[in-house]
Design brief:
- The protein starts with a strand and ends with a helix.
- It contains 8 helices and 4 strands, in the order E-E-H-H-H-H-H-H-E-E-H-H.
- By secondary structure, the chain is mostly helical.
- The strands form 2 sheets. It has a two-stranded antiparallel ribbon. Strands 3-4 form a two-stranded antiparallel sheet.
Length: 213
């Protein structure tokens, strides 16, 4: 009879050393998940040299099958979980942006039919013509409001420059006394008065007589 050394039979290859959980897992692979604990017990002793009670084998088998079932159902549950759908506000925002991009590319005079085709072909958005008309009106109104708000500061600056500028000097024409071409200017009257004060009344009258001849 062959001698035993360290629990092994002489002349036979040593049995692979594995932990009990791994040994039960391999036994289930070989014998199937429906194998009885008694069959698993015999397989463990013969293949790995492990002696385990059927109670422990049943416990290990339950843990192994439970983990295997969890790994199998996890990907299925992830695939079955639908992606979070966009809320009404998010959908409206994406459609509004799509119409805005279409108008930027086609121009503000583009027909709703052309916009509808571009939305479907390039952005993958399907919209009825009625909705496109509503979004188009909103986009154009917002664009017009931005243009007006941009023009107001420029007009206010121009008005401020006009207000701050000093008034232009008004040229004053000499005031004439009398009617027609023979009117006497105010400067002439002032000059005559100054002459009268300087030479006296008598000499002034004499001067007039001389000039009148």
């Amino acid at each position: 009879m062959a001698e035993k050394k360290n629990g092994e039979v002489a002349g036979q290859p040593p049995k692979a050393k594995v932990n009990k959980m791994e040994a039960v897992r391999q036994a289930l692979v070989e014998l199937g998940n429906d194998a009885t604990t008694t069959n698993l017990q015999g397989f463990l002793k013969e293949r790995f040299g492990l002696e385990m009670s059927t109670k422990f084998i049943a416990t290990y088998r339950g843990d192994i099958l439970k983990k295997a079932a969890a790994r199998t159902t996890a990907p299925e549950s992830q695939a079955a979980t639908p992606a979070p759908s966009q809320g009404p506000r998010d959908q409206a925002g994406s459609k509004m942006d799509g119409v805005r991009r279409a108008l930027n590319k086609l121009g503000k005079d583009a027909t709703t039919t052309r916009i509808q085709a571009l939305l479907k072909d390039e952005l993958g958005i399907e919209m009825p013509l009625k909705h496109i008309t509503n979004y188009k009106s909103k986009v154009l109104r917002k664009a017009a409001g931005k243009d007006k708000s941009a023009k107001k500061p420029a007009a206010q600056k121009a008005a401020a420059r006009t207000t701050d500028a000093p008034p232009a000097p008004v040229a004053t024409a000499p005031t004439a006394v009398g009617k027609g071409k023979g009117g006497i200017a105010l400067d002439d009257i002032l000059a005559t008065k100054s002459l009268l004060e300087r030479v006296g009344a008598e000499e002034f009258l004499t001067l007039i007589d001389v000039l009148a001849k």
